[in-house]
Amino acid sequence: MIKWIIHGMVQGVRELEIFHTEEHLKELRPIRLPKSLYTYDKLEVLKLTYSIGLDVPVDVWLPSLRTLHLINVKYETKECHSRLLSGCPVLEELVLDKSLNSNSLRTFYVEMPNLQSLSIIDICEEPDYGVGGLHMTVINVPCLKYLNFVDYDDDLCLCENMPEVVVANVRVVNNSPEKLVASQLLWILSSVHLELCAASRGWWNLLTRMLESSPKLQVLKICVCNERPCTTRSIRGHWRGPSSVPECLMFHLHTFEWKNYNAKDEEKKIVAYILNNARQLKIVGISGWRYHSKEERSKKLNELVSLPRASSSQMD
């Protein structure tokens, strides 16, 4: 494998993708990348997937690299990932999937001046908190425009200095909703597109905080995340909406969608609140009731249509 990589470098290759199949991951020894690859100045795209061992040297420097995917790679030291990122001065797209190594590398730092697109995924559902304490992801990316954050591992995500974000897909499972609301995901201050996973624990509290802290929000979608298909998680207790009508509802939100809507009492409150306060709303799409009869579906749809609206929105 190393010979092939070196041969490609000699030929001036600009894109490199190395991967193992997930099924044989445990049986394979990690592939070690040649040291010369870390200073290869022509590389523009690097995608590493499964059982790739990263032993990043201090002098790493990839001046042309614009796309980097690290999918469940093996980090030889705790400094490997931050050292690699610091050696990519023009990186624009970064994908980090740490589902299989979240216990070995508990803190991820992403501090990059030119990054445009960032995807961080952790769908490990049984983290080991016995050693090392809380998992944490720190993001400081001032030029970021697209963010995809999928976390089933109770990570604490600290994000700052992200004024340009326009699309944010947030899918979070958290066993401590009070921690989630108090400290997590308050960085989407200028986002205009938000997808919220309704299979996440405490998602309704996160919805309230997102409405309050996203003044430019234009598109709101409540759905069930693809990585963890299931029905919408029922709201426990009573939904507490914003203390005052958020700015996004008064001036910007024009599209509201909800998939797998169950028409429970607290869910009805959320829909009624959005429709009654979103003054610029143009399109509403609500789907669900898969196992209800035609008559029941018609009745529930009529209930939605009869709700008072602040705008002349179109109900689908």
List keywords for this structure.
single chain, 316 residues, alpha/beta, 2 domains, three-stranded parallel β-sheet, 27% strand
Following the backbone from N to C, one meets helices and strands in this order, namely HEEEEEEHEEEEEEEHEHEHEHEHE
The overall pLDDT average reads 78
| Structure class | alpha/beta
Assembly level: single chain
Describe, in plain words, how this protein is organized in 3D.
The chain has seven helices and 18 strands. 20% of the residues lie in helices and 27% in strands. It has two domains: 1-128 and 138-165; 180-199 and 216-316, no CATH class. With 316 residues, it is an alpha/beta fold. The relative contact order is 0.07. It is elongated, with a radius of gyration of 22 Å.
Compact overview of the structure:
The protein has 316 residues and is α/β, with parallel strands linked by helices.
